[in-house]
Design goal:
The chain is mostly helical. The protein is built from two helices and no strands.
């Protein structure tokens, strides 16, 4: 799709640069891992430790002050 337009949002020639491609890949992997960790951590807090979804954020907020 981006190859066909006159002025693409992201020029695909940028991905020929190894530094740019490696940085983009590593940032993508970090964000995927962060999302997975957030999902697993919320499940662990609720189902294993027994915290409710509404009580835990307030407890974390008061303990950080």
């Amino acid at each position: 799709m981006e190859k066909r337009v006159a002025h693409p949002m992201v020029p695909l020639s940028l991905f020929r640069n190894r530094d740019f491609s490696g940085g983009s890949l590593s940032l993508t992997l970090v964000q995927v891992a962060n999302g997975g960790l957030l999902l697993v951590l919320t499940q662990y807090l609720q189902f294993v430790l027994g915290y409710s979804a509404t009580r835990r954020p307030r407890r974390a907020w008061y303990s950080s002050r």
